[in-house]
From TrEMBL:
Gene3D superfamilies with a match to the protein in the record: P-loop containing nucleotide triphosphate hydrolases
InterPro entries hit by this protein: Gal/GlcNAc/GalNAc_ST, P-loop_NTPase, Sulfotransferase_dom
Protein name (Swiss-Prot/TrEMBL): Sulfotransferase domain-containing protein
Domain (Sulfotransferase): residue spans on this chain: 73-387
């Protein structure tokens, strides 16, 4: 009954165009696939599927036109999986426009609202009034923001995304926008404060506001042009899930998705050591995210393999040049002439450059360093929580503290992950 209702609602909405009918068909099939195959109990399945269902209010009424003919590459990953390094490597594609975690401030805004027990959150913009959104509509907000990003419509983005300090910290393609815009934004805020206090407006204030807005647009203009003239638009995420990414394919059919995974024991250990693991439920949430993402990755492997590339961090750390070759084949793009030297400098640096940077003295050693200090019982807990995803990714359980610490005991089974995932009935 639920499937019939969902199908009827979606297909009535997309009855206008063939491309929209195709999108409807794909989403219905994915819905049924998850309902029938994911290895969760019935209640968990329903909760999971409810996140995937796209309501008619979230769905775009028209298919957007990409402002750039660039190849679009999205890295979907998890915190502490080497995604920053992968993003930096993809940024070496000549003429690429690269953004580091453009959803970071958006997720923080939502998280703050949840922590404050609010049911909605407010986003501010540079060129339009603030807008309020229900927390329950968050997936729809992500979809809207992603469309603005992928069409290079930077002026439509929430202001926090544009001015995030991480653009300059991690040197992406918006790294100097804050320098140009900060004074104009401060002047606009001061003017708004004065207007709110006096409750008056006049032609001088209006002209001043228009001038400040014009200055902001001039700050943004070169970045918009850079995006639209780029050879590749590259973005890396730990806050974008595969269910979000797959929705974008109906609007951006040439989209390429790199799904980056890592041994969850290494993920959790690294998050603990860097102070990011704060919740007692974080392990279960991380494992659920990986398993849920693999459902969509499997679907693309079966139905649109040209759109998906699954990479294991350990393979990348051990054989970076082999992974580079595979990335070239997958993206169809050439990297810069110095790319191999760039990778060598990152994976065989003179010393480790710190927890939040990407240079490593020995990338292979770094990939398995978690074994030297991870508590055995915690390793067992992670293995149990991530058993479903570990079974297809080849991450093996340890049966004793000694085997965990013994580097001669392999923590993984090297396998054809694509074949394992496609043939596994739990996904």
């Amino acid at each position: 009954m639920r499937i019939r209702s969902f199908t009827a609602n979606r297909c009535r909405f997309v009855a206008m165009k063939n491309s929209q009918k195709t999108a409807c068909f794909i989403l219905v099939i994915v819905w049924i696939l998850i309902f029938c195959k994911i290895g969760l109990n019935k209640t968990s399945s329903r909760n999971f599927v409810s996140q995937v269902v796209i309501t008619t209010t979230d769905r775009p009424q028209t298919t957007p036109k990409t402002s750039s003919d660039a190849q679009i590459i999205l890295v979907v990953a998890y915190m502490r999986t080497g995604s920053t390094l992968l993003g930096e490597i993809l940024h070496q594609i000549p003429g690429s426009f690269y953004l580091f975690e453009p959803l970071r401030t958006l997720e923080n805004t939502r998280a703050d609202a949840i922590e404050a027990n609010r049911t909605s959150f407010t986003l501010e913009y540079l060129f339009k009034k603030p807008q309020q959104f229900k927390i329950s509509s968050y997936d729809g907000v992500i979809h809207s923001v992603m469309k603005s990003l992928l069409t290079c419509s930077l002026d439509e983005l929430p202001s926090d995304i544009l001015t995030d300090r991480h653009h300059s910290v991690f040197i992406d393609s918006l790294n100097y926008f804050e320098d140009c815009s900060s004074k104009h934004i401060a002047d606009l805020k001061s003017m708004h404060t004065i207007l709110n206090q006096t409750q008056t407006t006049n032609s001088t204030n209006t002209i001043t506001k228009l001038r400040l807005n014009d200055n902001l647009r001039k700050c943004l203009l070169p970045y918009t042009a850079s995006c639209r003239n780029s050879s590749a638009v590259v973005m890396k995420f730990i806050r974008l899930r595969m269910r979000h990414a797959i929705r974008l394919l109906s609007d951006f059919p040439k989209l390429k998705i790199v799904h980056l995974v890592r041994d969850p024991r290494g993920i959790i250990d690294s998050q603990m050591r860097t102070g990011f693991l704060k919740s007692g439920t974080a392990i279960a949430e991380e494992c659920h995210a990986i398993a849920s993402d693999l459902v969509f990755t499997k679907y693309l492997m079966e139905n649109k393999p040209s759109a998906i590339k699954l990479i294991q961090y350990e393979d990348f750390a051990e054989e970076p040049l082999k992974m580079l070759k595979e990335l070239r084949q997958f993206t169809g793009l050439n990297f810069g002439a110095d790319i191999e030297q760039f990778i060598f400098n990152k994976t065989s640096a003179a010393k480790d450059n710190g927890e939040y940077t990407t240079g490593r003295k020995n990338s292979t050693e770094t990939a398995y360093k978690w074994r030297t200090h991870l508590d055995f019982q915690l390793a067992v807990d992670i293995e149990k929580a991530c058993a479903v995803s570990n079974s297809v990714l080849g991450y093996l359980p340890f049966h004793s503290k000694e085997s965990l610490k013994n580097i001669l005991v392999s923590p993984r089974r090297r396998t054809n992950v694509t074949h394992s995932l496609i043939t596994n009935i739990n996904f």
